[in-house]
Amino acid sequence: MPLLKLLNMVIRAGVDAVIVTDMGMLHMLKQQNRKIAIHLSTGAGTFNSEMVAFAGEMGVSRIILPRHLRVDEIETLVARYPSIRFEVMILNSGCKNIDGFCTFHHGVEELKFSKWWGIPKKLNLDRVLLDALRKMPKALGRRIKVDLTGVDSACLLNYRVECEPPDGISEAGDSAAENLASAFNLIYGADTCGACRMLEFSKIGVHGIKVVGRNHTLEKKIRDVRFLKTVRDTLLPQELSITDFQNQTRTLFREQFKMCCRELCYYPDGMSS
């Protein structure tokens, strides 16, 4: 179906907003003055304040920020552009790649084994398996994961990534190499969480949180929403310190998902130990 025809159909149906990634589509919506709110996708790559300003000029009312931004960077953007609402990733599908630049293909195994692919998530066995694998030596865990289920995404293939630093900055180069080498592994296909930072996001004025996983089972979606709703309705009103809020959120995570979140964190900067 042509995209413009589909757009007209959703407007007539009364859809509140459209999420836009493509700059050409954004330009067309601006020129045609379509009567529908525009939300800018994380795939559009909102890296800095200049991109936010451009989006505002194009009629964007809400921006879904990329995963890789730090909490203090998000705070700066929210404070500088009070007329735009900001949304952040909060649960599932952690990735070190930048959405706007990523061209990896996902879901290969899901297509091959569609009849039973959702069963482990429905029974919470995916988390049990992941927790067991993460306690093993990395090479052994990866081998078992690949042999048992195959690789669902090209970014989880067994890449060997190295970085040769320029002369004179060996320390920075070593750090960069370590970061790159750890970017492609078992953990970053997991259900990453940022719920520990919801108190800070609430204080700085973030308008919404995004749960990733449109392909997840209904049971998994209900479990995710129940967890976040409990954090919002039970912990946020208590006026806890940031440290106490983070600790109690971790406890709720363990109770809901039967595993420790440990390093599965969207926003590790500023986290209490």
What structural keywords apply?
273 residues; alpha/beta; TIM Barrel; 2 domains; 5-stranded parallel β-sheet; 12 helices; 5 strands
The top-level CATH class of the largest domain is Alpha Beta
Tell me the domain tally: 2
Would you give the CATH topology of the largest domain?
A: TIM Barrel
The backbone outline, from C-alpha atoms, is: globular
- Given as residue ranges, the uncertain stretches (5+ residues, pLDDT < 50) are 183-189
How much beta, percentage-wise? Answer: 5-15%
Strand order of the largest sheet: 1-2-3-4-5
* DSSP summary: helix tally: 12
What's the average pLDDT?
A: 80
Describe the main β-sheet briefly. Answer: 5 strands, parallel
Order of SSEs? HEHEHEHEHHHHHHEHH
Give the CATH superfamily of the largest domain.
Aldolase class I
Report the oligomer.
single chain
Q: What's the alpha carbon Rg, rounded to whole Å?
A: 20 Å
Helix/strand structural class: alpha/beta
* Strand elements, count: 5
Task: Give helix % range.
Answer: 40-55%
Distance between the termini: 51 Å
CATH architecture of the largest domain: Alpha-Beta Barrel
Structure report:
This protein has 273 residues and is an alpha/beta fold. The protein has two domains: 3-94 and 191-257, Alpha-Beta Barrel (TIM Barrel), CATH 3.20.20; 102-116 and 129-189, no CATH class. It is 45% helix and 9% strand. It has twelve helices and five strands. The protein has helices at 3-13, 23-32, 49-57, 71-80, 108-112, 119-122, 125-134, 138-149, 170-181, 198-204, 218-235, 242-257; strands at residues 17-20, 37-40, 60-64, 85-91, 208-211. A five-stranded parallel β-sheet has the order 1-2-3-4-5, covered by helices on one side. Helix 11 packs antiparallel against helix 12. The chain is globular, with a radius of gyration of 20 Å. The chain starts with a helix and ends in a 16-residue tail after the last helix. Residues 183-189 have low confidence and may be disordered.
